[in-house]
Amino acid sequence: MRSIRAIRRATHDAVPLTVTPLGSSGGNIPGTNDSKRHVEFDIVDDENQTPSDAEDVGGVAAMNSAIDKTSLRLKRSFELVLRNGHAVRFEAHSAMVALDWIAKLRSLCGYWSRRHLVDAEEEMRLIETVRGVVTPKHKHESVDDISDPPRIGDFWNWCILEGCRPIIKAGRLYEKKGLHKHYKHVLFILTHGHLILFRLKSTKSAHHHRSRSINLIDSYTYSGQLAVATLPKEDAPVEPTARRYQDGLEANDTDEDVTFIIWYRPHSSKISQTSTPEDSGAEYSAKIRPLGGKHKMLICKARSKFERDLWCYALNAEIERLARATAARERRLRDTQGL
């Protein structure tokens, strides 16, 4: 939703290949450059209802009987103007339905654009409560002057433990595949039993390409000094410096405080969501590998210590839930290895 710059009614017969960016903020692609503040969604109220919109009963029959089919098709169409300069056009059942889509999508995009900034402000308040203001020269609202304390429950919530959402956690992290690789900006999405990674690139593409999917069975995470000790000498910790990101988040944590590693084994099988804890181990077809077998690691960096702790908490909770859901397989694992 944050990739959408504006939502408007179609004005031309053909969808333009490129469009002129709206507003003074331009059409920069968000997400890949953290030095620029994310611009909010533009709400343009220029689609007022006309009498001809109510006369459109909708459907193919009304389109075939219309005298000016091109004009009617434009009334039923609306466009999503993306921040990369492209536009995507949709055609609704009728003109009134198109106006309803425009109104609801504008509200949804405005909500998520604002929600992204509010979450960063709440995280900043929590960091300032514990460690103080990161950049004293920057004007911040004093924590003592705030009547409502930071809402910790918005971050440490029970949905992570209960799995009541299809997407348990999502966000952007810096990761590298091997010890001697370079860090890349990647979108992480934690779902039931899997961690899905998407590449973030400054291209004209309207969506992110999925890099890979990691099965979390037989995996674990570790952070802090143990994670830093795993890294090569060229990645030795340096003095902490204050950083400010595009959503306003400020942090000055060390590499030890923001680094965590995911240790996992490659599995290609899928997790059955319909099996019970007693029989899921028999249905789950993941091969039980020896303890000394091949494994992989994913080295990740968060923007702050608080963000790293949230990711480790969510990953460990999902790994534990997955182990309990495959209790039979865990018993076979212990018997196979002679533990």
Report what the structure shows:
This protein is of the alpha+beta class and 339 residues long. It has ten helices and twelve strands. The longest helix has 37 residues, at 95-131. The radius of gyration is 25 Å and the shape is globular. The two termini are 49 Å apart.
Briefly note the structural class of the backbone.
alpha+beta
The largest sheet is:
7 strands, antiparallel
Cα separation of the termini: 49 Å
Q: How much helical structure, as a percent, in the residues? A: 25-40%
The H/E string reads: EHHHEEHHEEEEEHEEHEHEHH
Strand elements, count? 12
Shape: globular
* Number of helical regions: 10
Q: Round the mean pLDDT to the nearest integer and report it.
A: 75
Which strands sit side by side, in order, in the main sheet?
A: 7-6-5-4-12-11-8
Structural Rg: 25 Å
**Low-pLDDT stretches:** 19-39, 138-146, 272-283
Sheet-strand content, in percent, reads 15-25%
Explain the layout of strands and helices.
Layout: E1 4-9, H1 51-55, H2 59-65, H3 69-76, E2 77-82, E3 87-91, H4 95-131, H5 159-162, E4 167-176, E5 184-191, E6 194-199, E7 209-215, E8 220-223, H6 225-230, E9 243-244, E10 250-251, H7 255-258, E11 259-264, H8 280-283, E12 296-301, H9 305-325, H10 327-336
Antiparallel strand pairs: 1-2, 2-3, 4-5, 4-12, 5-6, 6-7, 8-11, 9-10, 11-12
Give me some keywords for this one.
single chain, three-stranded antiparallel beta sheet, globular, 339 residues, alpha+beta
